[in-house]
Amino acid sequence: MALYSEKVMDHFMHPRNVGSIEDASGIGEVGNAKCGDIMKIYLKIVDDIIWDVKFETFGCGSAIASSSMATEMILGKSIHEAMALTNKAVAEALDGLPAHKMHCSVLAEEAIKNALKDYFDKNNIPYDPADFPELDHDELHDAVHGED
Ligand code: FES
Question: What is the rounded distance in angstroms from the CA atom of residue 65 to the CA atom of residue 13?
Fold first, then answer.
């Protein structure tokens, strides 16, 4: 069986929504210090709807495919639906990721949440901080790859 699904390969080779948004409503950036991958998400939000979303990802193929799929999944959706997006849903939509690559999809969930948090902060919109737990990416990476 191939290591990566056709969908992963498709989103890696032809990523959707690559780029940046100049007048973004919210920007989220996350990184994994261990593998060095960085993901940045830009959101344009109008009337609680994600009107536009773009990403810049400097990282592995799974991180690029996850960013591409995650942006497709939240485009045109409400901010509440975007908040509910999980890395598992992104991985499932990609027809799965190898176990040692699941942490790459976590970056996508985190970057979108950070961008939403940035939007809430900029607009003085109250939110529950518990919705934005600080994930330790180093720990996640170690859990999957072991300490090095
Ligand atoms: Fe680190 Fe994919 S995000 S290896």
Answer: 8
